[in-house]
Protein: Acetate kinase
Amino acid sequence: MKVLVINAGSSSLKYQLMDPATREVFAKGLCERIGIDGRLTHKVPAKDAKYEFEIPMPTHSEAIQAVLDALLDAGHGVIKSASEIDAVGHRVVHGGEKFASSVRITDEVMAALEECIPLAPLHNPANITGIKACEKVMPGVPMVGVFDTAFHQTMPAKSYIYALPYEFYEQDKVRRYGFHGTSHRYVSARAAAMLGKPIEELKIITCHLGNGSSVAAVDGGKSVDTSMGFTPLAGVPMGTRAGDLDAGILEYLMGKHGYDMKEMMTILNKKSGVLGISGVSSDFRDLENAAKEGNQRAELALEAFQYSVKKLVGAYAAAMGGVDAIVFTAGVGENDAATRMAVASGLEFMGVKMDAEANNVRGKETVISSADSKVKVLLIPTDEELMIAMDTAEIVGK
Structure:
């Protein structure tokens, strides 16, 4: 089965055409500057080839059409007919409480996604636009929605409830939702496979660390807690996002500097995190270089990030009554040996013992703890696109 995976942003659209059974990726790429002018980067892994085009993309419909044209092109295409695409899997950021698993997209599902827009105003409209564009360009092809929030719907009420008047949850659906669920689900399943044990018997802490970061407690294959909250702003400090902070700070700064709520949210989402602390960059590679050159604020930003992740690892081990494995994934988790070591060091009391040589690796699925470590520490590159394709194939296959 050939599945086209679509991840639509407000002005961009990532895609992969793959066979989830064999895991072969036929082509993948990125549409950028949708609504401005339009640029398509198209890669064909089998040829180790990369193609770039300037294509007008006033809307997502033109972007989807450009993707299809690239896939069908005589020179750099990988299919001879659009009918070879059996299904389309869409990443959808927010499914609210309505979706605890991936679903085939129907009119009822689209209506539910529209209802979730207030919960993810920056993401869901783009995801919905991507779905509608695909339906317009590929009528009749089955579509599946795979939700970032779905995996965390197994959290018990004590994990997701906020200590606010209860009617805010009942009437306004204010609760912890969690995000990166597709990634947490994928790497926890891979961890169980690597350890050769049923996931139902394991307590796993998954650390998705990148420009956006979240940590999850996965007990028996189910998410029981996670660090992101009502929005992806909560949890550890991220590239530009503040993470958890005292809400009283907002009132204090707004009163002192005259910010309105929109300006304050821009600061929290775009100007905070490790960028805010360091004043250097939101890119962890830039921070490491600056820290090596003696920039103390860059070093502080890295330390604050690593400390926040370490605290969550300890908290989630306590919440689950133990831990069998800790997983590092995503851009920073997969490529930054220093961050992995900083997070895992000092956890010997709970059975973690790192292997510095094994940890000196980038983007490779491997065990990075020592042979005698009671808690296994794993590096597992995430593959959200494969997870979306697998879900899509399973649902359409039914």
